[in-house]
From TrEMBL:
It comes from Hevea brasiliensis (Para rubber tree). It holds the Pfam family TauD. GO terms for molecular function: oxidoreductase activity. Keywords: Oxidoreductase. This is TauD/TfdA-like domain-containing protein. Residues 6-262 form the TauD/TfdA-like domain. InterPro entries: AlphaKG_dependent_hydroxylases, TauD-like_sf, TauD/TfdA-like.
Length: 267
């Protein structure tokens, strides 16, 4: 059902706490995959973590979970323990629709970028900064304070590192594809990248792998298309939402507090 529909919702199943949610995740029988990325998160119970703990006032941009890492989850499972009083929807986007529309408007650019691949950079501090939605420090991200061990783990994930004078690190990832085709999903090309989310930002960049700039108009129009294709999902207490991470981009709308959504990522 997840592959066929891209998203499946369980509502009304009396799921109240992390332990209940973990039972559902473990019942499905999928292997766990540890989150690696910039979002500040806290381990809650067994397979269960908090979703991005960045300020609720900020919009978390659409993304495929761990899209830049060599091994990324097939399924992202979300549980709403406390729905927000206002806002806080989890919007998601059928990824293939973005590819189709970008090919209609930018056929040459899409094929050029896909052929060359993309190179991303991201700068992380040493320690966590929960005032930022991308404030996870490298020590937490790699599960070690030892630089040599962090480099080894980064290499295994397909990234290089440059150490900065302030104790932070610049990670370099690439080349990565612009689109991907996954088995069982009708041969559709998924918009499996994070160009819009990382292009020209303070802590990140996205270039073609040969160093060529991605055209600004390409990025801006892609941003518009993603928003136009988005589906706004409003949470109710106890909801468990399964997302096909191969097929859907997802994000988080700004909200008033409180909002508590937990997550499990699965192979």
């Amino acid at each position: 059902m997840i592959i066929k529909n891209s998203a499946v919702l369980l509502r009304g199943f009396d799921v109240k706490k992390a332990e209940d949610f973990n039972d559902i995740v473990e019942t499905c029988g999928w292997d766990d995959i540890r989150y690696v990325g910039p979002a500040p998160r806290t381990h809650i119970y067994k397979r269960v973590w908090t979703a991005n703990e960045g300020p609720l006032s900020e919009f978390i941009y659409y993304h495929h979970e761990m899209v830049l890492i060599k091994e990324f989850p097939k399924k992202v499972v979300l549980f709403c323990q406390i729905p927000p009083p206002e806002g806080g929807q989890t919007p998601f986007v059928p990824s293939f629709k973005v590819t189709e529309r970008m090919l209609e408007e930018f056929p040459q650019e899409v094929e050029e970028i896909d052929a060359k691949g993309l190179k991303y950079t991201f700068t992380a501090l040493s320690n966590n900064d929960t005032s930022s939605m991308r404030g996870r420090g490298w020590e937490d991200a790699f599960g070690t304070s030892d630089r040599a061990e962090a480099e080894r783990r980064a290499k295994a994930l397909g990234m290089d590192m440059e150490w900065l004078p302030n104790g932070g690190v610049k990670t370099i990832l690439g080349p990565r594809p612009l689109t991907r085709v996954f088995e069982g999903r009708k041969g559709r090309r998924m918009w499996f990248n994070t160009v819009v989310g990382m292009h020209g930002k303070e802590l990140s960049s996205a270039l073609m792998a040969d160093g060529t700039e991605v055209p600004e108009k390409f990025v801006k129009r892609c941003d518009q298309i993603i928003e136009e294709e988005s589906i706004q999902f409003k949470w109710e207490a106890g909801d468990v939402l399964f997302l096909d991470n191969y097929a859907l981009l997802h994000g988080r709308r700004p909200s008033l507090p409180p909002r508590k959504v937990l997550v499990a990522t699965c192979k």
